[in-house]
Amino acid sequence: MRFTSLLLYTFVVFLLSETVVWGQICGKASARESFGPIVDFYVTEHYQTPHLQNPVRFYKEVLVQKDANITLTCTAKEPEPSLPLWLFGTKLQPSMIKWYVNSSFFDVSNCDETAAKKKTCTLSLINIRPQDCGKYVCKAANQVRCTYDELYITVASGQKLPNRDGISSVGDNNIELKMGN
Questions:
Q1: Which of 56-65, 79-88, 118-127 has the lowest mean pLDDT?
Q2: Beta partners for residue 72, in sequence order
Q3: How far apart are CA 106 and CA 95, in angstroms?
Q4: Strand (E) positions, 12-156?
Q5: How far apart are the C-alpha atoms of 100 and 140, rounded to whole Å?
Q6: What confidence tens digit (pLDDT) does each residue in 106-117 have?
Q7: pLDDT at 51 > cutoff 70
Q8: Strand 61-64 to strand 146-155: parallel, antiparallel, or no bridges (unpaired)?
Q9: Is-contact 174 77, C-beta < 8 A?
Q10: Of 45, 27, 44, whose CA–CA distance to 36 is shortest?
Q11: In Å, how far are 28, 80, 89, 140 from 14, measured between CA atoms?
């Protein structure tokens, strides 16, 4: 009995001292038992009408019309582990969100890197072109684990890889991708 308790204590101390390294392999966001942040993707399409659009949760892919404007919203929130939360303190709060498009990292300095129970970071695609097609990944990390969610975007008029040269930041927690003509 004492050995089992000592082993459990050692495991918990190991988890608490673990620091996330972005090079590590991240788990899929649906693996909620991993102690990593719970990551969700939402897509809002912006129309020319004056009404507000509610974000829509997409699970795998979304088809977007050429010349549309959309905003991808990634939320990361603290998981609900089976162990008592007090063992972890604030170590389970998401501290970072990173964006990847077709496996290329986008250095988004305006995504807040302060730990919080819930973090949100957005990526706006303006005047969508076929080169905007691809896999969009949002990775979130806390001090214990890294998790991710992904979304495939298809533009109705064709498929090409995005051009990273057209990136410019706008506003707090937003990034705008301006793709070539």
A1: 79-88
A2: 43, 123
A3: 17
A4: 27-28, 38-46, 56-57, 61-64, 69-77, 96-101, 104-106, 118-125, 134-141, 146-155
A5: 11
A6: 766 557 667 788
A7: no
A8: parallel
A9: no
A10: 27
A11: 22, 19, 14, 21
The residue-averaged pLDDT of 48-69 equals 69
Cα–Cα distance between 140 and 166 in angstroms, integer?
A: 24
Termini Cα distance of the chain: 68
- Closest residue by Cα to residue 18 from 27, 8, 10, 29: 10
Token pair, residue 172, equals: 């707090």
Q: Measure the CA–CA gap between 112 and 106, rounded to whole angstroms.
A: 14
Q: What token pair was written down for 147? A: 């998790």
| Contact residues for 55 (Cβ-Cβ < 8 A; gap 6+) | 42, 43, 44, 71, 73
Burial class (CB in 10 A: 0-12, 13-18, 19+), 173: middle
- Asked if 93 and 117 touch (Cβ cutoff 8 Å), the reply is yes
Place of tokens 């088809």: 63
φ/ψ of residue 147, rounded to 5: -130, 165
Structure tokens at 157: 């008029």
